[in-house]
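With this grant's support, we have paired protein sequences with backbone structure tokens. One protein thus recorded is set out beneath this paragraph:

_____
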Amino acid sequence: MTTSWMDCNERLVVGDIVFCAEILDENTGVRRLLARQSPSSKNLSGERILRGSCGSTNNVNCEAIGAGIARRMSERTDSRCQVGLLPDDDARVIALCDEMGVRT
């Protein structure tokens, strides 16, 4: 399981299953990882997805990169958490995707 520090704009607690996305701002070259409780959606169709390109707006690209589990919260800020990515066939991921209408 890959573990990464991610931005989390929502109040998360250790053990939460989250949706993960990679945001790339082509204007600045800044890449960041984001963990959130809601799934990513495609720009044009609004379809909720677990993996794949969501599209771009003003040269800011969003890529859904799967789901993970919050492993640790930052001690310095509540807007960063360490997330362990989960396999798409994990029972918790399947259940969450079914509950939220996410295409896997």
Remarks:
- Residues 91-100 form the longest helix (10 residues).
